[in-house]
Specification:
The chain is an all-alpha fold and 120 residues long. Helix content is 77%, strand content 0%.
Length: 120
């Protein structure tokens, strides 16, 4: 696999997660509850990211990319995921989602840049 193909795949993973986060943030901004499929999907993704057992390659790659980000620790991700799944979103959850959105945007930009360069 070429480096361009690798970074293209990573970009797609980050893009999908970022779109999901954005959908949830928009839903939370227009209502006080999070009762959409996007909320449930993101909640489960965040719980999966915090789990020792990653369910699929996309979750594993995303977890590795987020590794070391102390503002989005596995505990923070799990708590945010559980809050979304239980529809008990608070300010801490919103802050975690905003930080996740920022991090995913940075990772997308880095992947796109590396894809264009064709080098690691």
């Amino acid at each position: 696999m070429s480096s361009t193909g690798l970074y293209s795949g990573l970009y797609q993973i980050f893009y999908k997660a970022a779109t999901l986060v954005d959908d949830v943030l928009v839903a939370l901004g227009t209502r006080n509850s999070c009762e959409t499929d996007a909320c449930e999907e993101l909640g489960q993704l965040l719980v999966d990211l915090a789990s020792e057992e990653k369910r699929n390659l996309s979750v594993q790659m995303l977890a590795m990319a987020l590794y070391g980000n102390h503002r989005l620790s596995p505990t923070n991700r799990r708590e945010a995921g559980e809050a979304l799944l239980s529809n008990r979103v608070d300010q801490q959850t919103l802050e975690a989602l905003e930080e996740l959105s920022r991090v995913l945007e940075q990772m997308q930009a880095q992947s796109l840049s590396r894809m264009r360069e064709g080098a690691p």
